[in-house]
Prior knowledge:
Radius of gyration: 18 Å
Number of domains: 1
Number of helices: 13
CATH topology: TIM Barrel
Helix content: 40-55%
Strand content: 5-15%
Distance between the termini: 35 Å
Strand order of the largest sheet: 1-2-3-4-5-6-7-8
Structural class: alpha/beta
Oligomer: single chain
Number of strands: 8
Order of helices and strands: EHEHEHEHEHHEHEHEHHHHH
Amino acid sequence: MHLTGLCAFPITPADPSGTVDVVALRRLIAPLRAAGVDSIGLLGSTGTYAYLSRTERRRAVEAAIAEAAGQVPILVGVGALRTDEAVRLAQDAQAAGAAAGLLAPMSYTPLTDDEVFEHFATVARESRLPLCIYDNPGTTHFRFSPALIGRLSRLPGIVAMKCPAPEPDAAAAYLRDQRGLVPDGLSLGCSGDWNAVAALLAGADVWYSVVAGLFPQVALSIVRAVQTGDAGEAQRQNARLAPLWALFKEFSSLRVMYASADLLGRCSVMPPLPILPLSSTAHQRVADTLASLGLI
């Protein structure tokens, strides 16, 4: 597969014991399918994959793929501390019908480049699920060296790379450097919603978007503006969302999306402990911001 356009990342509603509410999850997936997002990123960091058991992750994947009904490819987070567990998670995703896996180098003991390379090579080989390299140093505390990116990108089954979007004035140089490391055709995409538009305008293939997990039309309008060459419109819409991006940076996009899901009436669940929900004051700020943007 070749990932392009908008990949929307929803939360994964679950009860305090970690049991996924598949009915609520399907309510989150249905609007994404209806909106026409290019792909759905299930069980990413916003989907709290690291806090869910293998059984619950499998239930979430099966429910999401059933709701997507073959109309939207599903990219599934398959990261785990152990390589054998990541293999099993990738095999589960492949068996359920996922289009690709999203693999981050999770660790407790800091990993070397060679260890990460073997981890990816083993998961790709033994699961036969196409994989997207998930570069998220804010959670994994691992930084991919250019040499490692080059080695990984040439492994059979590696089809994409998801990276944090750089600051806008560095986006063009960053993407130029990344493309110099990887084979032609490998999809390069960015996360970090507040900097994603600059990355798209600089040539990123995909916006891996948190906001799209609840507000797909907002993100789609930006992506389609970029795709039609209307940079001014994309930048205008992005600037309009500055109050929301400010909340993402202050409280984390994860906590803001949990509050937003509650405000929209999609589901009323808390993030997994030890992550705490927003305070009542912060929750009200999210409500006020969404209302000012016409999103609720």
